[in-house]
Design brief:
This protein has 509 residues and is mainly alpha-helical. 72% of the residues lie in helices and 0% in strands. Helix 5 packs parallel to helix 7 (125-140), helix 10 packs parallel to helix 12 (218-234) and helix 19 (349-366) packs across helix 27 (495-508).
């Protein structure tokens, strides 16, 4: 089963290979393999890690996580604890390349605690600390917690004998050490640059460059060079960065382009932002995101979004603006975000967001909200789904039945959308985006709130309405406006919002 599925996966190179019926057949094959790997009574599959890597490279890392998690359970049932921890590590690593949910974060923490009690498997702990730190570093942006975990992992690696590590963990010691060090470096880049953090950053850069080996993997060498380029980019040394990036391209194999291209444009965007070249910086950010999506690099997408918002805040700070909404609008931020959403969400995307905004503004006008509140509704509705940019494309566009983890990932787009807008100082808009799936009877998500603002309710009902009438929504047959309105009347929206929607629909007919 595993071999035939692996051979099937080799036909695909990127998410762009999947369209229409091909996506459906791919999903069916993936379901069959997932069902197979979830069985305790089955044959051992030697291809499972390679299948996970291939799915990761196709932009479906959360499916890789599920498959490796199931495989770890298979070995645990058979008493092969070494293999259990090995496969469990891979599962966590794949999750970190997609979207580690709150439940995955809790599991990661519990695995680290458990390994500290298991002396015979303690050698796995640095890798598990690394994945746990990565959740705080990349997704929670809690750099203080991440740095502490990275330091603990590196300290443990320093105490381990390389031969023992490679014998038990079955991974190269130098690869593991450099991987953790490079992740720590990136976290330090994003930390508040105190004197202590600056010294630690320079110390780690010296260690990273000095501890090289001819046998280390090409990926690790490139990762080290990219970190060096990023550090120089953030300190305004553009010419040195160009030379490093040029060297990377000239010395790298074709297989490494998927990792280099997105990072190249992301780092160029940082340089251009520091130089005050706003438009060029935005162009490189969009190009970086397009390259990441093309290659299925979900983690790279998350890093690009992080740096994009960082760059826009630099521009706003330099301009000394008071009205951030107008500044971001005039400098192309909203168009950029909608462009990114269009790339990620194949079935709804930016057109849905524009339509939701038109409906929401119409309802706000019918309800006689003042100009300030209408503007708040317009921006919030336009960007209500922007949190989807951190969701892997396959999870976002999945046409097969969703499991509990899929729902947890998708529902997190409200929280992630709020984070994005708060970083830009758009705090009122952020609260509406966070609450646009809440309902007045407490039946919504994520918090089950009942007391939501009228603006959030307007965005919510506009979202439900436009999603239902959209023709290309995951192969669902679109409904007529009147049919949707009759269904919405049964949902948990206030009568004044429903009546305003009814008037809006009548005006559009």
């Amino acid at each position: 089963m595993g071999n035939s599925f692996f051979e099937y996966l080799k036909k695909f190179n990127s998410p762009k290979d999947f369209t229409g019926e091909l996506l459906e057949s791919f999903s069916q094959r993936l379901i069959k393999y997932s069902d197979f790997i979830s069985r305790i009574e089955r044959e051992e599959d030697p291809n499972v890690i390679e299948i996970g890597r291939k799915l990761r490279d196709l932009g479906a890392p959360m499916e890789s996580y599920k498959i490796l998690k199931a495989d770890s359970d298979y070995y645990k049932f058979r008493g092969k604890e070494n293999m259990f921890w090995r496969q469990l590590y891979f599962a966590g690593a794949f999750a970190n390349l997609g979207y580690p949910t709150v439940s995955i974060e809790k599991k990661s923490k519990s695995y680290c605690k458990l390994l500290k009690k298991k002396k015979e498997f303690l050698l796995f702990l640095p890798l598990f600390l690394n994945t746990y730190a990565g959740i705080f570093h990349i997704y929670r942006e809690d750099y203080k917690s991440a740095n502490a975990l990275y330091r603990e992992a590196i300290s443990l690696m320093e105490e381990i004998k390389p031969k023992n590590f490679e014998r038990i963990v079955d991974k190269e010691y130098l690869w593991a050490h450099k991987l953790i060090s490079n992740n720590y470096l990136d976290s330090l880049f994003m930390s508040e640059m105190t004197e202590e953090n600056e010294k630690e950053l320079m110390r780690m850069m010296d260690i990273s460059e000095s501890r090289s080996d001819r046998t280390e993997s090409e990926y690790i060498k490139i990762l080290t060079l990219l970190n060096k380029a990023e550090m120089k980019a953030r300190t305004g040394k553009g010419k040195e960065v160009d030379q490093i990036l040029s060297d990377i391209f000239s010395k790298s194999s074709q297989n490494m382009i998927r990792y280099i291209e997105p990072s190249y444009h992301r780092i160029k965007a940082i340089i251009l932002a520091n130089e005050g070249k706003e438009r060029e910086s935005v162009d490189h950010m969009i190009r970086s995101f397009e390259e990441s999506t093309y290659y299925g690099n979900t983690l790279a997408e998350t890093l690009i979004m992080r740096d994009s918002l960082f760059n826009y805040n630099i521009l706003a700070g330099k301009a000394g603006v008071k009205n951030r909404y107008e500044f971001f609008k005039n400098n192309g931020l909203f168009n950029y975000l909608l462009n990114v959403l269009k790339i990620k969400d194949w079935f709804l995307g930016s057109e849905h967001s524009v339509n939701v905004s038109k409906t929401a503004v119409g309802i706000a006008s019918i309800l006689s909200l003042n100009s300030v509140r209408r503007r708040l509704v317009r921006t919030s509705s336009l960007l209500h789904d922007i949190g989807k940019v951190v969701v892997p494309w396959y999870s976002l566009n999945k046409i097969s039945p969703l499991d509990s983890l899929d729902w947890e990932i998708l529902q997190a787009h409200t929280t992630e959308g709020g984070k994005i807008l708060r970083k830009l100082g758009l705090n009122k808009e952020a609260k509406i985006v966070e609450n646009h799936h809440e309902r007045i009877d407490g039946s919504g998500y994520l918090k089950g709130l009942k007391n939501i603002s009228i603006e959030a309710e307007i965005v919510a009902v506009s979202d439900v309405y436009n999603a239902a009438i959209t023709p290309n929504r995951k192969y669902k047959i679109p409904k007529t406006p009147q049919k949707v309105l009759s269904e919405i009347k049964k949902e948990s929206f206030s009568s004044k919002v429903i009546n305003a929607l009814a008037k809006f629909i009548k005006l559009q007919s």
